[in-house]
Each structure stands twice: as C-alpha cells, then as structure tokens.
UniProtKB/TrEMBL annotation, chain A:
Chain ranges of the Radical SAM core domain: 52-191
Keyword list, A-Z: Iron, Iron-sulfur, Metal-binding, S-adenosyl-L-methionine
Cofactor: [4Fe-4S] cluster
Name of the protein in question: Radical SAM/Cys-rich domain-containing protein
Gene Ontology molecular function terms on file: catalytic activity; iron-sulfur cluster binding; metal ion binding
Chain ranges of the Arsenosugar biosynthesis radical SAM protein ArsS-like C-terminal domain: 211-345
Organism listed in the record: Belliella pelovolcani
UniProtKB/TrEMBL annotation, chain B:
UniProt xrefs under Gene3D superfamilies: AhpD-like (1.20.1290.10)
Domain Carboxymuconolactone decarboxylase-like positions: 24-100
Name of protein: Alkylhydroperoxidase/carboxymuconolactone decarboxylase family protein
GO molecular function list: peroxiredoxin activity
This protein's record includes keyword Transmembrane: no
Annotated source species: Belliella pelovolcani
InterPro entries, per database record: AhpD-like, AhpD_core, AlkhydPrxdase/COmuclacdeCOase, CMD-like
Pfam families in the cross-refs: CMD
The organism's taxonomic lineage, starting at the top: Bacteria, Pseudomonadati, Bacteroidota, Cytophagia, Cytophagales
Keywords noted in UniProt: Oxidoreductase, Peroxidase
Amino acid sequence: MKSLKAQQHPLSKIEYELEVLDTPIKGISFADKLANSNLFPLSPTQIDIFQINMGKMCNQVCKHCHVDAGPDRKEIMTRETMQLILEVIKKGGIKTVDLTGGAPEMNPEFRWFIEEIRKISSEVHIIVRCNLTIILANPKYHDLPEFYKKHHIEVVSSLPYFTAVKTDSQRGDGVFDKSIKALKMLNEVGYGAEGTGLQLNLVYNPAGAFLPASQEGLELEFKKRLKNSYDITFNALYTITNLPISRFLEYLLRSENYDSYMEKLLDAYNPVAAANVMCRNTISVGWDGYLYDCDFNQMLELKVASPTSQHIADWNKKSLLEREIIVKQHCFGCTAGAGSSCGGATA
Amino acid sequence: MKTYYNPEDLKKFGKIGEFQKSMADKFFDYYGEVFQEGALTAREKSLIALAVAHAIQCPYCIDAYTVDTMEKGCDEEQMMEAVHVAAAIRGGASLVHSTQMMNKVKEISM
Ligand code: SF4
Ligand code: SF4
C-alpha cells in the first residue's frame, strides 16, 4: 500500500480536503457549536506541551493514518530545526515533549534529540509515540526499549484491538504479532510493570466509522485479554476518536460513510470535551519547524493564526497565547462523547 | 421503491411521543436506565440487546445494536456468539416443545 501522496490521490491535495471539511453538517459548523458553549473564538489556556512531528516517514501504512505516513514519505525533521526547538525548551515552561511522526525513531537524529533534551532537563516529561513494530523492523532498533528506559520516556503505542484480525485490518498484515513481540520486549525491561515508573500506555481507536468505547471499560477488557492470552501488562488505555482527515477521510468518502459519521460526531458533541480540547495547552511543531494548533491542523497545513510566530525560529510565547485556534469540521472528532485527545478521553 | 422498513425511520424513534407524550417519556426514561452501567456492564447489556434484536428479528434494533456493541468495544466474534445464543434459545424453545409432541404421540399410540 502507498501513501495518498504517492498515489497522487485527490485527497492528498490540501485544498480538496479543506473543501470537504469546510461544508457544515446539517447546516451546523463547529464554530457554531463552540459559540453555543461560549467557547468561540477558541483560545489557548497555556502552552505546556510540545508535540513534535519528527517526520512523515513510517515503516507502516495504516489505513486510517491522518499523517498519510509511510515508507514512501521522505519529509523528516533536520538537526537544525531540532536545535531551534531545544532553544525554546531551554527557556523553560514546557512540561511535556511529545514525539510523534510517522515513526519518530526512523529520524536519524531521534536519539541525539532526546539526549539533548535530557541534558537540558531531567524533569521534562518525554513521550514517544512508538508504533511497536519499529522495534522489530531492523536490528538497529532492537535496543529501543533500553534506550527509552534510560531516558525515562513514556511509551504510547497504538493497538486497535486485542485480536489479530481487527488490528491487522487497520494497521497491516502481521502487525498484531509483531506488536505483541514488541510489547513483550518493553515488559522485559520493566515497562508497564507496577513500581518501575516506566509508563507503557496503549491507544485504541475504532477500526471503522464508529465511536470508541468507554475508556474505563475497554481498559479493563484489554488488560484482561492481553494478560491472559500473552502475559502482557501495560498502564493505561487511551481511547481516541478517528478524525476525518487524510486516509481516514478517504476511507469515509470511499465507503460512503462520511455523512453519517459526521452526523454522529455532531450529535455526540459534548461541551465539556470542547472546553478541554488538547490544542488549548499544546503547540504542534511540524517536521519543517512550522507551528500549528495540533497535529491535525498540521496535516491540513493550517499554521497558527499568530502571524509573528509561525515558525519555531520566531518563537514568541506571548503572541502564541493570544492567538485564535483555527477550527473546522474535523474538530468535531475531538468533542464527541467522552472527547478525544492524544491522551485519550477528555470529559 | 417503497418498503415497510426504512433505515431513516430509526432516527425518528425518539419522536414517537408526538402521538402520546407521557407514555413515551416514561418509556424512554426507563429505556435509558435499563442500559446504564449496573450489576451488568453497559457492554454486556448491549450484547444482550443485540441477541434479543435477532431473536425478535427487528431490523432497527439489529442496526442500532450492531453499532452500539462495536462502540462498546466488542468485536465480530463476540457479536456472532451473542447471535448464536439467541439462535440456540430460539431453536431450543422449538425443540423443547417436542416433548409435548412426544407426550401426545405416546398418549394416543398403542
Ligand atoms: S498511524 Fe502511525 S504507525 Fe500507522 S502509518 Fe500512521 S504514523 Fe505510521
Ligand atoms: S482538531 Fe485540533 S484544533 Fe480542532 S479541536 Fe481538535 S485539537 Fe483543537
């Protein structure tokens, strides 16, 4: 399977994607809903989290990927851009650095970058969004669990289900078995075990056009199944709603589920989740150093509405805190039901 | 083509109060409470509803509880097992009545 970009799919053109997402659902826009909840224009509350997209390169080509990542994507962050990020981290105030991609580990500067962050601070919380299979993809990655442990990194990994059929249907043939092996390797060095402080959290997202289950109930089910069948332990399960962007949007349109899915998101709008959307305390940094409200807006190339501080080189916290967050119909994915963020449910 | 069942009608379920409000309100209050987490989890209740939907062969309920069980984190295998429970009870209910037939046969046979 190729990325939409490599296929030259119409949806790889941002203008087309935005055209779809600019159309109100049943005549209602996300901005209307926010206005009803007294949240429009949406404003930041703080900048606590840096979510950094290390690049679009990935060893997998998951069907729902909002990044349109894959082995054929060559856009990755350079050391120069990382240096600029380190300068901002040095100023203080950033509590969490959340590394994502693609597969962030495929960036040749990945380890260097983490070591440099740790030189600045042992306190900053570092998260790596590890797709698990990367650990087995090449012998040079086999020691990643040890590396994560050494730098006290929280590992967050997708596992759409505790069975192979459902996992592989979303993430590719053989992904489930490899993910189980990788989880065992992480468990072996102490990840997911009580008392070690080494956090291993899993991410569930629905394999289709429906909403995620309740986080609490599903976490219990995952824990029971993974323990009984594979003797695997982990800390928490985050349930995430699929946002109608990129490859998931392509799936929705192709399967003619787009309208009903958007109506479902709209009907499940929850004002509490809206008040807690992750863009209110996060800045997302693109592989080329541009700044965005979140990883989704990044993929839609909607740079922060802070004209004097749109690139990490021009970092201006004051101006970023005064910005208006850019919202469109995809945002309904963050506010449906119990809400959705990179840390799971929000309400 | 006109048919008795129209998937769009499922969305109108909540509007049955238009013709008789107080009973509909009571029904939906009750319905809502039934599906809350209780001694049974909401997930278990949803699987029971899916099985019952098949037993009573209601296309609206099958549609609604297929989505609902998936949104409660169930997978195809669990859902199909629930339908087999319905089928087993339905089949069993027929077969267990054969004891009546057998009784009668024996009663009137030499
Ligand atoms: S969802 Fe994650 S693992 Fe899958 S293709 Fe996208 S970036 Fe790679
Ligand atoms: S999609 Fe991004 S901008 Fe929209 S609500 Fe979610 S986090 Fe905020």
